[in-house]
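Exercise 7b. Backbone tokens:
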């Protein structure tokens, strides 16, 4: 391997490390917030806070779809001036969305009153900062500056401690006061992100950004809805067919397999930007990146599944509760399900690099329908265990569809083995792909 290749591999590994570290920090921070709130408020108040966090989580997916996803696929390999200009518009879209949604939340809070009044007002008032802070993560990784994203998340995490202490001292801790403290600290971190990036997001450019990327963001948004909604739908359907015990068993094993999601999301922060840069160096380089990503995520799922499977039942039950003894029979099929999902990650990332939003959405629709069919047929045959094996069977089917979609898009560019020009031409013209 040449010196240049070694240096390039080290640079990619370093960026991957920042992605994993940032996602681990973000996940631990969210976990810590949940624990801190749960310790100081009543169960009812914690439920109210959970509603606020759920609204925020939904809006994070929306802002990624309409704002920063297009930035990542179009500008990760662009020159710095173009990337900065696009970052200003994408960040402005996050601010604009946060202001619009935040205004609605405040208005609804004023109108409805009750337990949710001050919660919605607090969340709405800080929503612009919450969404901009999240946008900085993708902006920094698109610019190959993952370290800045980690630092920004660290700043938010550190600020949470005094913010929660002050909220508790100034008034009795409540879901609304803690939500405001959480959101306000995110606003400070968002302002710090502007200092790090040395640019100011411009919400006046949001509509122009949406028009410019109209062939991408509607399909990205539809994918986000399908991805986040499919699991909720099949869990609800399983509950109707087989009861809440089956749902609880599935959910418990999914929680136990949660660390795989941290790995997947951490790699995901880096994967699409790296795939876009690889495509600029040639399609064979993109192939290598896509395969490597699948191996990393799928291998991580395999490793964690083995750790859980080989751990003594007493240890696992001590971590997730005595319900594990009844749910543990689902570990094998759900681990295989996660492995298969990990193996399709590279194909998804490759389609993002090709800006093939239409094909990616079509595959996502197929995958969602396959999951629903597999879960429902499985639960009808053998309860929760059947649903788990049905999900695994579905994942094997759509794994091949994801990679077939990737190979089809690859062939569209007429690239022979080792020919780079088609990839470069395509990368330069985002509007050509619908």
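Sequence design result:
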């Amino acid at each position: 391997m040449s010196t240049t290749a070694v240096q390039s591999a080290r640079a990619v590994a370093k960026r991957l490390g920042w992605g994993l570290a940032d996602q681990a920090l973000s996940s631990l921070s969210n976990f810590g917030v949940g624990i801190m709130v749960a310790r100081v408020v009543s169960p009812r108040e914690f439920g109210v806070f959970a509603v606020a966090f759920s609204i925020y989580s939904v809006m994070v997916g929306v802002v990624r779809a309409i704002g920063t996803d297009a930035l990542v696929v179009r500008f990760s390999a662009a020159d710095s001036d173009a990337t900065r200009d696009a970052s200003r518009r994408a960040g402005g879209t996050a601010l604009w969305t946060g202001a619009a949604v935040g205004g609605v939340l405040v208005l609804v809070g004023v109108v409805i009153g009750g337990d949710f009044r001050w919660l919605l007002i607090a969340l709405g008032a800080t929503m612009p900062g919450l969404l901009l802070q999240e946008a900085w993560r993708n902006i920094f990784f698109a610019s190959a500056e993952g370290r800045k994203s980690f630092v920004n998340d660290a700043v938010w995490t550190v600020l949470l401690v005094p913010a929660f202490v002050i909220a508790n001292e100034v008034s009795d801790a409540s879901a609304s006061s803690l939500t405001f403290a959480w959101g306000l600290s995110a606003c400070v971190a968002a302002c710090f992100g502007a200092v790090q990036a040395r640019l100011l997001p411009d919400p006046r450019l949001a509509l122009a950004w949406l028009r410019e990327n109209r062939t991408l963001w509607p399909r990205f948004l539809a994918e986000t809805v399908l991805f986040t909604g499919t699991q909720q739908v099949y869990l609800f359907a399983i509950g109707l067919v087989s009861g809440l015990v089956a749902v609880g068993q599935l959910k418990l094993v999914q929680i136990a397999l949660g660390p795989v999601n941290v790995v997947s999301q951490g790699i995901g922060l880096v994967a699409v930007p790296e795939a876009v840069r690889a495509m600029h160096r040639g399609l064979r380089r993109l192939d290598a990146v896509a395969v490597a990503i699948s191996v990393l995520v799928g291998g991580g799922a395999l490793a964690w599944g083995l750790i859980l499977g080989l751990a003594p039942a007493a240890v696992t039950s001590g971590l997730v509760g005595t319900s594990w003894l009844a749910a543990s029979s689902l570990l094998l099929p759900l681990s295989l399900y996660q492995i298969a999902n990990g193996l399709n990650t590279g194909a998804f990332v490759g389609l993002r690099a090709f800006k093939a939003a239409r094909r990616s959405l079509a595959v996502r629709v197929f995958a969602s329908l396959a999951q629903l069919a597999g879960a429902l047929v499985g639960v009808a045959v053998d309860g929760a265990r059947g649903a788990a094996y049905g999900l695994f069977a579905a994942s094997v089917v759509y794994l091949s569809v994801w990679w077939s979609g990737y190979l089809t898009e690859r062939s569209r560019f007429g690239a022979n083995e080792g020919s780079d020009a088609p990839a470069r031409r395509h990368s330069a013209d985002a509007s050509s792909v619908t």
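Instructor comment: The chain has two domains: 3-211, 218-432. The radius of gyration is 22 Å.
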